[in-house]
Amino acid sequence: MLSACFAEERALYLVMMEGDPVSFLGSSQAHKDGRHADIKAHARRLGQSHDQLLKSSLETGSYSKLYSFKHIVNGFAVHTTPSQAKKLKYAPGVKMVERDRGARLMTTYTPKFLGLREGVWTEEGGDLRNAGEGIVIGFVDTGINPTHPSFAYDPLNPFTSNVSHFSGACETGPQFPLSSCNEKIVSARFFSAGAQAIATLNTSVDFLSPFDAVGHGSHVASIAAGNAEVPVVVNGFFYGRASGMAPSARIAMYKAIYPTVGTLTDVVSAIDQAIVDGVDILSLSIGPDEPPEDSPTFLNIFDIAMLFARRAGVFVVQAAGNQGPGPSSVVSYSPWAVGVAASSTDRSYPGSLLLGNGQKLGGVGLSGPSFGGGLFLHKLVLAKDAVKTNGTFPRTPPYIEECQHPEAFDPDIVQRRIVICTFSAGFFNGTSTLTAIIDTAKTLRFMGFVLVANPTFGNFIAEPVPFDIPGILIPNVASAQVIFQYYEQQTYRDVKGVVSRFTARASIGEGRVACFKHQAPTVSRFSSRGPDYIDGRRNPTDVLKPDILAPGHQVWAAWSPISASDPILTGYHFGLLSGTSMATPHVAGTAALIKQYNPSWTPSMIASAIATTATKHDNNGELIKAEGSAISSLYPSNPFDFGSGLLSPKLALHPGLVFFSGFEDYISFLCSLPDIDPVMIKSATGHQCNHSLSHPANLNVPSITISLLIGSQLVQRTVKNVESKAETYLCSVQPPNGTIVNLTPSWFTIDPQGTQDLYIQFNVTKVMGEFSFGEIVLTGSLNHVVRIPLSVLPASVSKR
């Protein structure tokens, strides 16, 4: 009876086992050699061994096995209690047991902004023939909306390349009949065992099929590989035409996140399946809820899964996270996955509010103008002046200031008038919504609404959202005070303060027309920052994160009308969203373009080409700036904000030189980390530390990060010429503050497919106490320019 009173709550655990998974057997070659039966037999044996281990180690009835991972890692997911999971840690053959930390979600213009229409797509005179033909991009996300025009297939305009290397499947279910898969969507699967184990799913939105009830998966898939020139129409207004980065690439969707819950258990299983299916690119706009508890950041099961995906020849791209702008906020840790930061473009949607005294204030809101085209002025009413005097509702901000409840207002006062709602406590704590304001406005027939900043809470962050009634957000306190001052001057009150006459007037201007005058790109405020770190104490490590910057602010792309997690977008087929989730598929699509153009390139070569050709400068020729904590504040950015710089797809096709590294190099890197336990590496990867780098910074990646430079440090890099001609390169260095950097050789000539070793000597001249930044530039005689960012913390002038 005592144990029943104190019954443990079950949780999800991911377990890694000794023994090779299927991919270690060289499964693609096995198919060619007719050894497919051997592969299936090995996979079956792995699953049986998992069952046998659980049966012999845990109490009957105390667990449920959810998945066996057999393709890129050997392991399984189990739903059990902490005490039973502890038994598994000591069971024979078990390498690692990790508690599931949960998983969360992290265009019309961006292809043009990145130079695709004029450059990459028409290389060699090919229209869309060079837009990702023959490449399959896999997405682990919330599913896909198969009826969206971004994913339609036109049999009159067939693809010219097959994808015979890919062997996916079309799983069916609610909202997703077999016809949902076509030549564009070549595969769609769903993974729900983890979600169903820990939550009661809502059958009205948590569809057990690949259908996307959220919109997020459809959004990212269309950014990377949506069809070209799809009209974007929202509330009857034409916003332009949307194209994916690689509109001729194929899409494989692996649904693992649901409106109710997301688990790493389902995500890892989805990654495992994507790799065995044969995707070329894996796009992950999702990630763990938090860093690993007990293991180095590089050695958690999610990152190990990505390592083995890379080993299988898959280019893996991952959202850096939306926890910026604080330091060490990235959730992309490992050098084998490309972590993407988010930036703005030069496009904005300025709205305006015209007051009766002629003052015009800027704001945000994708809505049409108030009646009269924004020139005819309407009476302006402050919400709290329109509240019923005899109502029985609570006198709290959501009712009297924030326009959340239509029953609080006198309809005769607000009807056909522009109502001022205030950003007060409900918005500040997240309980009030724009959706409720719009519902109130529609119910009471407002002429329009204005949501203004509250001096008590300061400025707020406003993103343009499509409103189907006239509306505008005024997020700046100074502008809000101008409105309040004008309103009070034009409003007459009796001795009790009750309004006797409203004479203030205003109109809402057109807010849906884009402006292309902004300084861009800027690193978005929300985008997570480096330095990368190795453990829960956020000790920095010798890896640059994020890796690259891509557009992720206000990106139009496909949506799902159900919009289960974002009611304000319900009914819409396109959404304008921001996040590193949106930046990530820009890189995935670019990788597809590079892979098509250079089919023999390895993932590390593609990653190198993307990094070394990126730009550090904005459209004004200045160093890219980053948004800080204060709204509207900008500061000069550095590699911990933007990695190597802004993605440049056209240049990445012809990088001149590339840095390359493979699976064994990553193992050597792990083995060279300070204070690392080789047993832990063996447990996580299955490989012994037979060789380690002399220093972690010697991993052959297109950047150099030294998290603790004491005295001097020699770093080595090797480059390969991937062009068809020999080229001579001149080498120059901009050293980080507090250091002297010597590069050998100072110049070199390199033949096609030839390699060249570079030796970079760092010497501390001044202790800085914080990271400083520099750059190596290799300038080729055939106009190739290779940039290598340097991030160094000079800690001591001499060796200790």
UniProtKB/TrEMBL annotation:
**Where the protein is mainly located, per its record?**
secreted
Could you tell me the superkingdom of the organism this chain comes from?
A: Eukaryota
> Locate the Inhibitor I9 domain: which residues?
42-105
- Give a Pfam family name: Inhibitor_I9
What SUPFAM superfamilies would the database entry show?
Answer: Subtilisin-like
Which residue numbers delimit the Peptidase S8/S53 domain? 132-621
Q: CDD domains, from UniProt?
A: PA_subtilisin_like, Peptidases_S8_3
Quote the catalytic residue positions: 141, 216, 581
Q: Which GO terms describe its molecular function?
A: serine-type endopeptidase activity
Please verify whether the record's keywords include Protease: yes
Alphabetical GO CC annotations of the entry are: extracellular region
Keyword Flavoprotein included in the entry's annotation: no
Q: Which Gene3D superfamilies match?
A: 2.60.40.2310, 3.50.30.30, Peptidase S8 propeptide/proteinase inhibitor I9 (3.30.70.80), Peptidase S8/S53 domain (3.40.50.200)
Subcellular location(s) per record: Secreted
Where does the Subtilisin-like protease fibronectin type-III domain start and stop, copy by copy? 698-792
Alphabetically sorted, this entry's keywords are: Glycoprotein, Hydrolase, Protease, Secreted, Serine protease, Signal
Any one GO biological process: proteolysis
Q: Which family does it belong to?
A: Belongs to the peptidase S8 family.
Q: What is this protein called?
A: Subtilisin-like protease SBT2.4
